[in-house]
């Protein structure tokens, strides 16, 4: 018996009136886990019942603990008729299953009903007693930590980054057509919620097993998605990056890390895991073989025993010789060799991370993407139909076990796409793909599967055990010029995968760089950027004839290459218009609808100091003899040039002049080439490569030969920059701003527009879509104007086409305030710095790293200017990162741990601080005019609801995350049959999203947390039927629950103990760790 | 292209104070947008009218959702749906329960019933306050009234506890509840010169001295249901007030009282002769008001009587406020020197409050 789950129902409040006669409710609670149900007593006639129940105890397998949610139902007792349900609470007890996270779940949960929304709250306490399980064949994976964060979580250190893990489960959808249903809507919705909860539990457990098999202890960048395929079922799939993480706060974990190599390291991360070694012989059990037989990652089980030695041996010898060669070329080759050997044993050398430990990312090749159009009805399966007859059965089906004889499983589809991505990466001379993500778009029976990532060459250091120490590696790493190394081309110059224009790196002048770089990752912390970044979007619509099945799929796959091409051209032009040369966080979303395709690409443009200055845009007319036409053209040209100049000023892009002199012509050669490789394949395996190099035309010359092109130019110029004081980006942090203040506001905004079906042309469509996005952004700027100066970070647009003439755009982002004065100060040192780098690097290259290596941080021999820079930029990632690359890890960790110890010691100070804030709040309130009578307490001071912050970022500005409490992954359905009464579609969705936020916050608070980081709204499916006065919405959100402590509160600590070790961490440490 | 759906939901609920005011004032979305445009916000922010429209709609929707919670403010504090900083919560509540002077003067002392609610149309036309806003204010009065009507203990405390209002606003509501409960007439033309503040001041004095809760002996008998009620006047006290009649009925007593007052004030009043001439009339007026308070109808007319019997005569003789004060002080104090008078405590309880009220009511 591996676990005992204990639940106590304490009380309820604000319950709805269920008995009209008495205006009261006779409430009781059913607590259900698996097949066991307990009930509380009926608490008569109260809207605030106090059940104070005994501890309900469930004795369950840990497998069930992982899969099943705890289900709490609040009902109204009725003597004569059936008891009425008030609502439910589902609690995911996964966070209680690993020792480092929460130990108890306790708090007020909103009671949720899929028809009525939140109806009061219930206070619940949940605990789990886990017993050690020595069973080596076990199916659970308790103890594996999951993080949505796509970087190494802040209070952990990556010992090994193992690589890609994926899994998917398929089941029938309890309600594949919501309008004609057989059950009551409530029963149907609840069945669906419960099923998805079960499926994601199972999925997480299965991924956890794979991680254990790879000897990891955590999944980072965990992304779970649902495909609502309608009649053909419901797919829950997840990808992530398996890692072995080491907690920074436990001092015990560091000591061995400092002195002794691999062997001890390997065991420490498992200390919360009952018995890790039992998994090493995984493949011998028949059970496991069955589980994975149709999964593309089956190779893991094959490898697990042999690869360990391979990984640790080959690279080590490589390291030795690598240290001898100081020249970049041979070193690169060597590195590639090493990485290759480490990575080629993995079926998919993919990483869902978008930010990496310093030194991990060596080179970036460019964006790789693959799309495939599939027909869903092709996977019709008799076994499936049999199950569908039984509507009450929620038993999980492993799609694979039913489809074992069917080659076209979804696993196979994804494997095919991943294979393609892998080969693209290879073509770019890269062995790995980072910032990897997968998505789908479904319309009726057509499904577009997309995958994209950034081809990269990685440092093998993190990819295997026990190579963290040793001076050899350190020196190797120093060989790569910090700040520009990742820009250097990974592919062979003479044997380029596609025609590209290369120049010498403007930073180190040693290596070749491309003129433009597109990536899906966050800007590396050590990258040297000039000026600020900005959000760049390409938007595109294409009409498509309505068609059925195969014809439809063919039509779509014929359109796709043109869409990709145009999206890419738009991005390129807009980037040029901003005077920038690189895109980060690129996400291209192609959405399929009944009669159109939509493409939306979002990225953050920056000016990388290492890359050459981009040239302008030239307009050429086709009819040169017409005078007025010429005039018009030159007018346009002038406008474009003005815009570029204005943008350069706006984003403070003033690259150093010297660079241009050395390189020569700043104007790129006409043959600009893209780094975007992609292909479309239909169900049949035909792969189509598309040359995005614009044939023989000059990419910077826009030819205005028809109205279409005119439109393009116009649309280029219609993008208005955000109002002054506002910046926006879709990456974690805004390049060029690093002095965040603590105010954050996360929000979700949804807009749906109805197109007038009369004049549907591509142009009109484009304009509508463009206006929709632009207006949405304008609205956001207006709403958040009180936060100026501020930056919208992690702006995430999602487009869907719910119906023929409807376009839905959902945006989630966070607005963060920053200190304007400091921002101005820091931009200068940036430029100075890059100048300095450019000039000094040549001479200092040899001594610089060696010195750094021997010295510990506080006394590193930077020139005074740099010291100043570090102290001036409170949160600056750049100096911090450079430091981190040179300082060895163990001492860094040591400092960090002692620092966190300090936090613990000073917990009292923090508590005092929080009291202080409430006092100030009272003072600030308009009613606190000081004339309260003594006999009455201040009215608003007794609020019991704690503030929970939510952010899509992995950090909280001005605060330090001290603990990760577990993953939050919630799925809700809301439906109404009284749409008008609830304020129409807007009122309905507004209330629902507010309720979803509330439920997320309540769960985090119950875990003892005060924030959700890496929050993402993965799905927001909205359907309406105004004629029937009905609407339904499904929302899926996830994130990491954390505890954070304000840095202002920590400063008290550091001020009292101003050791040299402590200080830099308080200021710049956040970005680095 | 038409916008079917347009929402913005923040983790921290955004509250725009200006829009909140427009909403409270009962403007429709389009009127609110027009007013905001006129405020020059478009020029300040560079936004378009469409953006303003969408923003206003959004705020209105939020306020609409919050309204249900504002009806029971403690709910706003404990609810989980909207994350609002405490200072903002206080602002929402305070503003929601704030009322217009013009409106409250129309409703003060009236029964908070459906009948009155029907008159809101007229009040709206008369005061220029939108009907929507009138309804909100009326419903607030009624809601507070219903909750605290039957409650024991301090009226202000009860209101503060159940509606989390600031002290000042809670006192105002106490006055409104007190007036509504006792149905004091405030609408007569004679009384038009009086502000809500004047009445609220009087209400507070009366609550402190003339109600059951005022005596301070109530807690000795916890079972008694009538004790410690701030909303009802002490019936026994009103009954006793009849005893004061002797002050005007007994001619000797009245003369003695007059001579005591005149001796003390000689040379101190600028209107001494007028006072001397009018003393008996004034005294008769004040004592008769007291004696009549046994009847509900006369209680309702208290303020009309006070103005008719005291304020107006003094005003027509152009008494300065200070003379009124000196007179009332002396008038009250001299009674203690009357040998034949046996109810000095009762007199003080009556006259103490009345003196305060009269001084407040005495202005142009």
Automatic annotation (TrEMBL), chain B:
<protein>
    <submittedName>
        <fullName>FGF1 intracellular binding protein</fullName>
    </submittedName>
</protein>
<dbReference type="GO" id="GO:0016607">
    <property type="term" value="C:nuclear speck"/>
</dbReference>
<dbReference type="Pfam" id="PF05427">
    <property type="entry name" value="FIBP"/>
</dbReference>
<dbReference type="InterPro" id="IPR008614">
    <property type="entry name" value="FIBP"/>
</dbReference>
<dbReference type="GO" id="GO:0017134">
    <property type="term" value="F:fibroblast growth factor binding"/>
</dbReference>
<dbReference type="GO" id="GO:0016020">
    <property type="term" value="C:membrane"/>
</dbReference>
<dbReference type="GO" id="GO:0070527">
    <property type="term" value="P:platelet aggregation"/>
</dbReference>
